[in-house]
Structures are given as structure tokens and as C-alpha cells.
Design goal:
alpha+beta, 34% helix, Arc Repressor Mutant, subunit A, 2 domains, six-stranded antiparallel β-sheet, Phosphatase 2c, domain 1
């Protein structure tokens, strides 16, 4: 379940890059959790005969970060080293790579002894010039956006899904309070070997399965961006809200790290209590900054400043939380779609500190 801090850690880890006509930005923040258990891998151009290929992956660890970090460091090589990948059978290569990775980690001493009981979700994307392969295992999620709308999304692997529940029960387990044996909130994951002890069962028949669900999409000129994020984001923002928000912010700035940071800041102010991590991969069809959008944002900030000044004059002994709640109750035009006033929390905080030192 995880313990929480008295105040969130908001220092961010960032990475940016570009290649093969793609750009990406990563934003990651510990937030309220006592530990940071997210990990990721982002790479354009995979070397040698794979220069046209690109790989992005997000891992959300639980009960420790060991498995998440190990997968971030090794899953890519595990997949591209398969015979299936050499034969251009990418879907089977990803499936095989996930299962091989899960089996190989059993040999890590601390995992083999049971001293480390960690596991991780995994969502990854292989992007070629023509295709987009997405694999999901757990409840991190991938969302593809066109025209500010989600056109594809992975399904979270939760124990209450009929197929997942049936496998869990067939393996001798149960689903209580929407968790595997009343404990684990995801029904598929890498690691979590306490839930993979059925010697008479196949690798994908255990209480918790390492089997990825894999999808292949043709790339389209209208593709704007792909988002990979952990549930610290999806707990408080829907697929549509993330697509609308990122689309809107890209009309103000082409800095994907800045946009990624705005997403996780918005999630924090919307009440996310988990680690928050996101990768935004922009395709050639992504929105570009426009003067009209920038003028609209300037007008919004002018309006917000005026409202903050008025509220501070009307209310005595106001704090930032009260100010934000008051602004949230008002009908303020042109707030960022998908984020609302929470997406302007940093601006509101800066003005509040200036006017109310």
C-alpha cells in the first residue's frame, strides 16, 4: 500500500531527446510516497540494424524498486535479442522477451531468497517508421492521441476483470477488496514471485501473470503524441483529460519536458498520492506553438491575477489552499482543458506569494 510523507517531494527527474522524426520528454516526481519506485527507459535509434526503431517504457514498482529498475535496464535488450525480433515478428518477440525477463530475474539473489518481494508493472512501445507496437502488463497505461482525442489506450490489468479473476481463482487464489488475495492491486506484473509459486501451473497461469497484452497500430499522419504513464497520473486524470491537456500545452511550448512537468504538477494538485511519471512522445503531427494560444494564455493569467487580488481584498487571513478552492468554484474562461485551475497552481502560488508575502 505504501506510506506517505508529511509533505510531498516535488523535485523532478527529467530527460529529453529526439531522433527518427520523434521527440520525447520525461517527467518524474516522488510526490507523497516515502520511496520513489518508478523507473523508465527512453531511446531513439536502437543501434546497428535497428536505427529506425525507437523504444519507450514505463515501470511502476511496488514493494521496492529493484524489479522496476532491473526491467528498465534489461527488458529492451531481452526483447531485441530474441530470435523472433530478428525474424521481424515483433509481437512474438515482445511476448517472449517479457516472459524471459521475468524468468531471468528469479535468479537475482535477493529475489530468489525472498528477501526482496518487489514487482513492477510495465508498459512499453516500439515505434518504427510505419508501425507502433505497444505492450502492457499491469496498470501503467499507454494512450495515443489524435486531434486532442484518445484513439487507442491499453487496458489496466485489474483482478476484478473477469478473465483475470478466473485465472486467479484457477490458480487457487481469490479476489478480495479488488486485490489478489486481498493484497496486490494488479493482476499482471513482472517480479512478485510470492504470487508465482504454482509448480503445476504454466508461467502465464499463476496468480499474477507476467504476460503482456500486445497491440500493433499503423502510424498515421494525424498521430499527435503517445503518452506512457504510471497510475499516479491516471488515478486523477482520464485519458481524455491528459490528451486535451497535453494538446493544449503544446500550443504554448514545444518543450516536452516542460509539458510533462506540468502534467505531474497538475496531478499532484488534483490529489494524486502516488509517485508520478510520464513520457510524452511527439510525432511529426503534434501541435505547434501558436501566437493565438499564447495570447489567450496571457489573457487568462491577467484574469487570474485580477481575481486573486480581489479575493485577497475580500478575505482575511486567507491561505493558498483556500484561495485555490475559491478559484476552483468560479467560472473562469480558458482554463487549460483537462487540468482546470489545478494546471495553473504554480502561477497562482507565485502571485499569492507576491501579494501575500
Amino acid at each position: 500500500m505504501g506510506a506517505f510523507l508529511e509533505k510531498p517531494i516535488t523535485v523532478k527527474h527529467n530527460e529529453r531527446g529526439e531522433g527518427n522524426g520523434l521527440r520525447f520528454g520525461v517527467g518524474s516526481m516522488q510526490g507523497w510516497r516515502c520511496e520513489m519506485e518508478d523507473a523508465y527507459h527512453a531511446k531513439t535509434g536502437l543501434g546497428e540494424k535497428l536505427e529506425d526503431w525507437n523504444y519507450f517504457a514505463m515501470f511502476d514498482g511496488h514493494a521496492g524498486d529493484n524489479v522496476a529498475k532491473h526491467c528498465a535496464e534489461n527488458l529492451l535488450q531481452r526483447i531485441v535479442s530474441t530470435t523472433e525480433f530478428s525474424n521481424n515478428d515483433i509481437t512474438r518477440a515482445i511476448h517472449s522477451g517479457f516472459l524471459q525477463q521475468d524468468e531471468a530475474m528469479r535468479g537475482i539473489p535477493e529475489l530468489a531468497s525472498g528477501a526482496d518481494k518487489s514487482g513492477t508493472t510495465a508498459v512499453c512501445a516500439f515505434i518504427s517508421r510505419e508501425h507502433l507496437y505497444i505492450a502492457n502488463c499491469g496498470d501503467s497505461r499507454a494512450v495515443l492521441c489524435r486531434n486532442a482525442q484518445p484513439v487507442f489506450t491499453t487496458q489496466d490489468h485489474k483482478p476484478i476483470l473477469p478473465g483475470e479473476k478466473e485465472r486467479i481463482q484457477n490458480a487457487g487464489g481469490s479476489v478480495m477488496v479488488q486485490r489478489v488475495n486481498g493484497s496486490l492491486a494488479v493482476s499482471r506484473a513482472l517480479g512478485d514471485y510470492d504470487y508465482k509459486q504454482g509448480t503445476a501451473l504454466g508461467q502465464c497461469e499463476q496468480l499474477v501473470s507476467p504476460e503482456p497484452e500486445i497491440f500493433c497500430q499503423d502510424r498515421e499522419p494525424s498521430d499527435e503524441f503517445l503518452v506512457l504513464a504510471c497510475d499516479g497520473v491516471w488515478d486523477v486524470m482520464s485519458n481524455l483529460e491528459v490528451c486535451q491537456f497535453v494538446h493544449n500545452r503544446l500550443q504554448l511550448s514545444d518543450d516536452l519536458v516542460e509539458v510533462a512537468n506540468q502534467v505531474i504538477d497538475t496531478c499532484l494538485h488534483k490529489g494524486s498520492r502516488d509517485n508520478m511519471s510520464i513520457i510524452i512522445i511527439a510525432f511529426p503531427g503534434a501541435p505547434v506553438p501558436s501566437e493565438e494560444a499564447q495570447k489567450r494564455e496571457q489573457a487568462l493569467e491577467t484574469t487570474l491575477r485580477q481575481r486573486i487580488e480581489a479575493i485577497l481584498q475580500q478575505m482575511s487571513d486567507v491561505n493558498f489552499g483556500d484561495l485555490l478552492k475559491e478559484l476552483a468554484s468560479e467560472d473562469i474562461p480558458d482554463l487549460p482543458p483537462g487540468g482546470g485551475i489545478y494546471a495553473k497552481s504554480t502561477f497562482v502560488s507565485d502571485v499569492f506569494k507576491e501579494l501575500h508575502p
